[in-house]
Design a protein that fits this description.
heterodimer, A: about 450 residues, Helicase, Ruva Protein, domain 3, five-stranded parallel β-sheet, about 45% helix, B: about 180 residues, four-stranded mixed β-sheet, 5 helices, globular
Chain lengths: ~450, ~180
């Protein structure tokens, strides 16, 4: 055992505490004793204990209440409840409240030994799991691809924020993959065993959104034939992802704020208050702060949601990621179309890296899918890519001026490496030298 | 270092001589046997119909002794501690006192044929185990080591009467 397991015994009877203490000490556990629930809570504030084994009947706060308090401080604490009375109801309640197990005094030595061994194994496995996770880093989320510093910075932020319960607003242009990052946050949070419920607010009318979020009771409105759980209810213990949050109406903003504050709501047409423990992640491609200034978005809701802001960079800010993204999409679509994996010529990659992608990763993905469909089945060539240059702003400059700018840009891109620049421009080195001379191009300009 | 076996269980002297011989070899200490008498009714818990192990251990602890002499009280009664249904013995870790009982060590108790050799082996193992705690040894996970925790009599049979290399080292360093 690499790390000693620590145990806290909570019992008002001294003889029980002493007996257990001696038993556990001989077994090599670090053991502490508390004569009451209050003392135990004070000890837990100052020291760490892996396992808490507590009596149920104690003067003052009983074992069940102690269990609840411990669970609010440390959700994954292993608490074993012991009592002299084999009351099934109490046992069931203890287990419902998160007790690891329940034992009736006096225990058979073998039962106690098994119980503690099981609890220790769980602790060791969970520590091992945590160490492995730290070692591996962020839980991989399919489709988040990128080695650029910009995307790595976002992934670091995701990792940092994932372990907290804070509300997050993910901002970014359309097509940057905001939902993927919401998934990454959820997948790396303690809520990952519970659902991630997504709601695309922009796609629903106000009344539909209300019923979608809060659910409805049978007969609440025409067509409400059955009771229906809302998304907030479905996200209990998990995460709710509200995409396009900027599109919700003022009325819904008020409703949403109330739910976020109380974590409770009523179904449409219902009268029963429903509680749900969810985390909120929102996404928008709008400037919410500006919307607050313009009076289009409630300031209180903005601050409630915007505890953490994660900004996803547009694809043009991480051009280095284009080759890996392209490879990812090639294998994704070739597999989906049951085709052999195609290659892509370097000129096509260069062409993609020169484009500014207003539609971001989604646009790149569509381009690659299309190129695989229209291509020769072996290699994606420049001509398989859509004429993306045409989508740029209307150019009014002279051809010469354009050429000068283009050559200068490509030279800068390749740090004035003549061979690579010539290759990218598809001209020979002499031609490139002539252009540099002709346009009086200089490094650093 | 002296270890004294206090015979409160009216255990056969020949049997105890063999236990003493084994303890002497294992602990490299002088071992003596003393026949003792005590009114055990004060340690009897009528609700559990068993003898209170904590009180028995306290009783042994309070016996006058010379220096760091270790005492192990050998009983032939069913011992419990408040939290457990029964125990074979217990000791003060790094202390001077231990107790062990032969009550649950005999085959007859489990409806099996009497086996004196097995009974002696079990008694020796329990004595070594509890005295091991007095020398600061914890339960050991090394297969066959006498310091392995035993909750059933079959567990006692699974282990040897000897200390593993690591426990032996600890034992000899602490008894020096």
């Amino acid at each position: 055992m690499s790390k000693k397991i620590s145990l806290l015994i909570v019992d008002d009877e001294e003889s029980v505490r002493d007996s257990l203490y001696n038993w556990f000490i001989e077994d090599g556990f670090e053991t502490g004793c508390a004569e009451s629930a209050g003392t135990a809570l004070a000890m837990l504030e100052n020291s760490h204990y892996d396992i808490i084994i507590t009596d149920i009947k104690m003067p003052g706060m009983d074992g069940l209440e102690l269990l609840k308090r411990i669970k609010t401080i440390k959700k994954d604490a292993i608490v074993i409840i012991m009592t002299a009375f084999a009351a099934v109801d109490t046992a069931v309640q203890a287990l419902k409240d998160g007790a690891f197990d329940y034992v009736t005094k006096p225990f058979d030595p073998d039962d106690l030994s098994h119980l503690i061994r099981n609890a220790s194994r769980q602790i060791l496995l969970s520590n091992e799991n945590e160490q492995l996770r730290e070692h591996i880093g962020l839980e991989q989320v399919q489709d988040i691809i990128g080695k650029s510093e910009a995307i790595q910075q976002v992934l670091r932020e995701v990792q940092q924020v994932a372990s907290s319960n804070a509300s997050v607003i993910i901002t970014g242009e359309s097509g940057t993959g905001k939902e993927l990052f919401a998934k990454a946050i959820h997948a790396n949070s303690a809520r990952r065993f519970f659902p991630l419920v997504s709601v695309h607010c922009g796609a629903l009318s106000e009344s539909l959104l209300e019923s979608e979020l809060f659910g409805h009771e049978k007969g609440a409105f025409t067509g409400a034939v059955y009771n229906r759980k809302g998304r907030f209810e479905m996200a209990d213990n998990g995460t709710i992802f509200l995409d396009e949050i900027a599109t919700i109406s003022m009325k819904m903003q008020i409703e949403l704020l109330r739910v976020l504050e109380t974590k409770s709501f009523m179904r449409v047409g219902g009268s029963k208050l429903i509680s749900s423990d969810f985390r909120v992640i929102c996404a928008t491609n709008r400037d919410l702060k500006q919307m607050v200034v313009e009076g289009l978005f409630r300031e209180d809701l903005y601050y409630r949601l915007n505890v953490v802001n994660i900004s996803i960079p547009p694809l043009r800010a991480r051009l280095d990621d284009i080759p890996v993204l392209v490879q990812h999409f090639i294998s994704k679509y070739c597999r989906a179309m049951s085709r052999n994996i195609v290659t892509i010529e370097s000129a096509a990659i260069n062409r993609l890296q020169e484009y500014d992608f207003p539609g971001n990763v989604r646009e790149l993905e569509n381009m690659i899918e299309r190129a695989i469909v229209v291509g020769n089945g072996k290699e994606i060539r420049v001509k398989d890519l859509p004429g993306q240059k045409e989508s740029n702003a209307i150019i009014t400059e002279s051809l010469e001026e354009l050429e000068k700018k283009h050559v200068q840009n490509v030279l800068n891109k390749y740090d004035w490496n003549i061979s690579r620049t010539a290759k990218a421009l598809q001209v020979d080195r002499v031609t490139l030298y002539n252009k540099i001379k002709k346009y009086d191009l200089r490094q650093g300009s | 270092m002296k270890i004294t076996l206090l015979n409160y269980g009216q255990l056969d002297r020949n049997l105890l001589n063999k236990v003493a011989e084994s303890v002497e070899k294992e602990f490299l200490s002088e071992v003596i046997i003393r026949d003792e008498y005590a009114d055990l009714s004060t340690f009897f818990d009528s609700s559990r119909k068993q003898y209170n192990g904590n009180k028995l251990l306290g009783f042994i602890e309070n016996k006058p002794r010379q220096g760091d002499e270790k005492f192990i009280g050998l009983f032939n009664v069913d011992i419990f501690i408040p939290i457990l249904t029964y125990i074979y013995g217990q000791a003060y870790l790094n202390g001077k006192s231990a107790i062990a009982s032969s009550h649950r060590l005999s085959n007859e108790r489990y409806g099996m044929v009497k086996d004196e050799k097995l009974f002696l082996e079990r008694l020796i193992k329990e004595t070594h185990h509890e005295l091991g705690h007095c020398f600061g040894l914890l339960h050991c996970h090394s297969p066959g080591c006498v310091m392995q925790s035993s909750t059933y009599v079959e567990d006692i049979d699974q282990k040897s009467g000897h200390f593993c290399e690591s426990c032996r080292k600890h034992l000899h360093s602490s008894s020096l």
